[in-house]
Each structure stands twice: as structure tokens, then as C-alpha cells.
Amino acid sequence: MMQQSLVAQKLFSFWFNKDPMASEGGELVFGGVDPKHFKGQHTYVPVTQKSYWQIDLEDFLVADQSTGCCINCTAIVDSGTAFIAGPFDAVKKINDAIEAKGFVSMECKKAVSQYGDLIWQLLLSGLQPDKLCSSIGICSFNGTQHLSDSIKMVVEQKGETHNDTEVGQDLVCAACELTVAWMRTEMMQKKTRGRVIEYVNKLCDTLPNPTTQLAVDCTKIPSMPTVSFVIGNKSFHLTPDQYILKVEQDMATFCISGFIPLDVPVSPPQGPLWILGEIFMEAYHTVFDFGNLRVGFAEAA
Questions:
Q1: Euclidean distance between CA atoms 270 and 72, whole angstroms
Q2: Where does 2-102+214-300 sit in CATH, by number?
Q3: Sequence spans of domains, the chain
Q4: Which segments of the chain have a pLDDT < 50?
Q5: I need a surface site. Which of 36, 43, 93, 110 has the fewest CB within 10 A?
């Protein structure tokens, strides 16, 4: 398009609409910017790697405090990545601060919290463990599927594609069955209800989680800290409402951290590499200036 002089300027710009109910999903402008989709002026920084839209990332902050993780950090601005990805240790600091947990661990804790007392009573009554979760309406089968099957499907088949509804049901069901199995084992050792539930709750944290996506407690979003990226000597803030994704499923709302760990190999002297994906670009209108080899950010409107 530039070679044929079809665009007024040698740049393109992105605006993402986060409102799922809006008729307009977003806007990609070739050869210019749409002033109705940003506020103020863009902050421009030079491209440091021509093979990517890669820029320097000076620091990232949690609750306005530097994490000290960024030494020679760089970032790729990528509209094709849904999340914000960064080095494992750095992203862990953010997810620890917002109390993000793996989906399997979180569903396990939820099962213990909501059904622990009921499971205890039903086990004492003599109900068969393999039918307990279906009897209280958590699992759809009724003892015809072995306990380990659903757990294995959720924990081990991390590379396969499943229907979202089925995955959600599998996680809840597997969490219930794990709780039943652990509680039954502890009960056989004559432990008290309180000690059994406390022990099983701790075991939930040890479960492997099949994806890099982490869940958070939706009710805690208002108290979560702001996360900021320092680019071009300016702090670009993301509020919890901006970096937490809400997914509606089976009349329930799941909240997902927008930060995922991804260690990308880089050659010295380059430092850790981040990917600023759609979550960042939803908050900040982004200009990719090919003519001047720079990227600009302004608050999205």
C-alpha cells in the first residue's frame, strides 16, 4: 500500500473495543489515526528490533512500586496475543500480588469450601465415594466413570482442544472427586473433620494446572493493585478491571488473570522479553509508525 501510494502516512493504528455488547468491535486504520479513539497525545518510543515491533521496557510496577525485575527489558507490541506475557519470575510477582491460582487448584479449594462439610457427612453415612459427587449434582455421571478418568482428562490432556463448557464441568467434577478421595483417605486415619478439611485445602495448592492461565476471585477485583509499565519515561497504568478477563459460562462468571508466564530466549545484551498484547492495547490506542520506526501509545477512548 505504501509502495502504491495508497495511504496518506506510513503508519497504521489499532483501537480495541472491550465492550462485548458494542456493535463495533474495534478499528484498524491504515495510513492514519482516528482521533475519536484516543485522549491526549501519543507517547512515542523507537523500535529497537526491526524484525519485530520491539521497544525498550524500562520497568514495571505493582501498586506503584518497582518490582526490580527489569534490567534491559524489551517488549513486543503484538495485536495477535490476547494476554500480556512476560518472564516467569516477573509474572509470578504480579499473579502473587493478585492472588491468582491455577484453575484446578482454585476449583479444588472451592469444592472444599462449599461442599467439604456435606462430603464429610455423606462419607460418614456410608455413601459410595464414586457416586458422591454425582449425588450432590456436581458430576453428570453416576459411578460409571472411574475417579481417575476425569482427573486425568483435566490435568494431563493439556494439549488438546475441548469445548469450554465441558472443560468447566470437568474441572469442577474433578475437583470434587479429588476432595472426596483425599477426605476418605484422611477419615480412615481417624482424623477430625476440621483437620481433614484443613489438610485437603492445603493439598489443593499442590495440584498441577494444565494451562498457563490463572484464575482469581472475582469478588477481590476492587482491592487488586494497579500494574504499570514504564515506557519512554512514562507510566502506563492498568487497573484490575483492565487486566482481569471475565468469562461467562454456565450461568457463572470466571475471572482470569491477564498475565501469563512466557520465557522467550534472547541473546545478550538484550534482557527479558515481554509481549504487550490485546489487554495492553485495549487500554492504550497504539500507533505503529513504519515511516519513523517508532510505536506510540495514548489512552484509549
A1: 6
A2: 2.40.70.10
A3: 2-102+214-300, 104-138+168-208
A4: 142-168
A5: 36
